[in-house]
Design a protein that fits this description.
The protein is of the alpha/beta class and about 260 residues long. It is built from seven helices and seven strands. The chain has a seven-stranded parallel β-sheet with strand order 3-2-1-4-5-6-7, sandwiched between helices. α3 packs parallel to α4 and α4 runs parallel beside α5. The structure holds nicotinamide-adenine-dinucleotide.
């Protein structure tokens, strides 16, 4: 199996519709060992049974806005596993009011919050886990086309994803000498809890189905397949990249 015995920390599982669920299931199917975080008690109730379903070895609270919780996450991984082969960053947040209407109306606080949780957290986590990354470890983050194109309604999250993708490149440069690779998957729209906050999602979903080269939307398992590739030795020469798993929609110039 491609990932036999590899230790994978999945950050961002909320329920069985989460992209993190598709990724975790796929990594597991290829032999990876799993652990999960949850942001707070409400999500904990959902994450614990899902972790059990996939044979997850431990779960813990980690709200990425809190440096102490990030440090605690690294300490727990060290205690349980000694090292980390795969870090999956599949989390983001913006205030609902910042995902409707005009981007120009984004408040300073809404901007700060979205960028902190959705972009800075990857850097904070990579720094905390740097001493634990094994040789050839792989970091995978989740992004969206709204980083480089205007997707009406995606607004401040598009700015956060642009920062995230730039962070992926700089982190790839910093961690590259140790053999650690850092990449992003740019997924097409998928109906998840986080996506439900994006006011224009329904229209985007229909548009992708009608106009993408594959004429369909992607599933979390489609994303999971690419995550397995990025986590495995098969992608050993790939870092700092954003790989599109979106039925080819990003290549379309005219509908
Ligand atoms: P989801 O709601 O299932 O997952 C989002 C996760 O972020 C949740 O588990 C939530 O608890 C976590 N989170 C929010 N604030 C947090 C915090 N402060 N600390 C720790 N965790 C926090 O939704 P999803 O669509 O699976 O989102 C996963 C990732 O995929 C996100 O980065 C999202 O932007 C990205 N993405 C989603 C789509 C889509 O259409 N669903 C497309 C491309 C990229």
């Amino acid at each position: 199996m491609l990932l036999e015995g590899k230790k994978a920390l999945i950050m961002g599982l909320a329920n069985n519709r989460s992209i993190a669920w598709g990724i975790a299931s796929s990594l597991k199917a290829h032999g990876a060992r799993l652990a999960f975080n949850y942001v707070g008690d409400a999500i904990k109730k959902r994450v614990e049974p899902l972790s059990a379903e996939l044979g997850g070895e431990f779960t813990f609270q980690c709200d990425v806005t809190d440096d102490a919780q990030i440090a605690n996450a690294a300490a727990l991984v060290k205690e349980h596993w000694g090292g980390l082969d795969i870090l999956v960053h599949s989390l983001a947040f913006a205030n609902r009011e910042d995902l409707v209407g005009r981007f120009i109306d984004t408040s300073r606080e809404g901007f700060r919050l979205a960028l902190d949780i959705s972009a800075y957290s990857l850097t904070g986590l990579c720094r905390a886990f740097e001493p634990l990354f094994t040789e050839n470890a792989s970091v995978i983050s989740m992004t969206y086309l709204g980083s480089t194109r205007i997707i009406p309604g995606y607004n401040v999250m598009g700015v956060a994803k642009a920062a995230l993708e730039a962070s992926v490149r700089y982190l790839a440069y910093d961690l590259g000498p140790k053999g650690v690779r850092v990449n992003a998957i740019s997924a097409g729209p998928i109906k998840t809890l986080a996506a439900s906050a994006v006011s224009s999602l329904k229209d985007i979903f229909t548009h992708v189905e009608a106009n993408s080269p594959l004429r369909r939307n992607v599933s979390t398992m489609d994303v999971g397949g690419t995550a397995v590739f990025l986590a495995s030795e098969l992608s050993r020469g790939v870092t700092g990249a954003t790989i599109y798993v979106d039925s080819g929609f990003n290549q379309i110039g005219a509908a």
